[in-house]
């Protein structure tokens, strides 16, 4: 019995497998005179495809997200920019709400970085790729891990400020976003040990166990890399830091379709895989412990936890009242294969044979991995205007 229960958990769990993807360069930024909100004049962002606004496509975009530099990515905003969605991302809505221009990607050498820089790269990991490779995890499509992004930040600051005092002053009126990042470390660990379609029995059980254990072992290391990066930024003078947790992975179409679990007991009341959501929460609980520690060390800084998990679940549960079509809550708008999830990991959005839904705004998921612009707008609202990023990193005027 115990063995069967464990197996079921692992099967459910296994799904973490991967998807990464991300799109490219941004577009129109509101260029009106900056109306500063709560004293914020710049945003520095670190992360992966959830917030990349064009770095990955400038690196050459290889791997499963190679199509994010072309349509239908960006179809809601006049063309692909490297953003992994039909339109804008949470970071864009946040910048707009702050009255700032959209964040330019660091690798866009000609861009204006007066109001911040986006270092996020699609596919990026929290741990560096060499450390992951030593642990047998070899899937990365970019070497621009959190550590590499942090070094780019230091290079940027060294070249744009004359002294550490000037840098501290700049950071004192900045918002620093450390993540979401780490999701890909787990994706790659699971994907490396993905069961083979034509194998079964002990061979695949061994594979799954390896993937599950490797992913579990990664959690404290991933969390430590995130909190260590945040600590360095606080030491350099950051006063407002936002650290997002992981999404409820068990609610994401790509994972749901890969797991293809038949047992109803593996799903919760929302239709999400219990095992995968537990895994995501394990990361989130450890991350919040690390954040509490940082708050003790830097009592005068605001260090917010952005609860992506709760925001996503709230959006899922209230989908129909938020303008989504509840029948599409688990289906990718852009994809192939139909069925409950419309995800085929061998034919990602943009590939031959994939289709795009007629009304993306009715879908939570854009390509099975990433969200639609509508979802990102709802998430940003829940996080930054309705308290799910706490303590509030920015005080918006009452509307
Ligand atoms: C990452 O770095 C390694 C070692 O320098 C290199 O072999 C590999 O091609 C790089 N991968 C990517 C995606 O740039
Ligand atoms: C799996 O086995 C079936 C039947 O033997 C075969 O047709 C198919 O090509 C195999 N698939 C893979 C991925 O090897
Ligand atoms: C939601 O989608 C289903 C399936 O495409 C459709 O039949 C239904 O009319 C849609 N509901 C709304 C409110 O648009």
TrEMBL record:
Keywords: Glycoprotein, Hydrolase, Signal. This is GDSL esterase/lipase. InterPro entries: GDSL (IPR001087), SGNH_hydro_sf (IPR036514), SGNH_plant_lipase-like (IPR035669). The lineage of its organism: Eukaryota, Viridiplantae, Streptophyta, Embryophyta, Tracheophyta. CDD domains: SGNH_plant_lipase_like (cd01837). Belongs to the 'GDSL' lipolytic enzyme family. One of its GO terms (molecular function) is hydrolase activity, acting on ester bonds. Coiled coil: none annotated. Residues 1-21 form the signal peptide. It comes from Lolium multiflorum (Italian ryegrass). It comes from the Eukaryota.
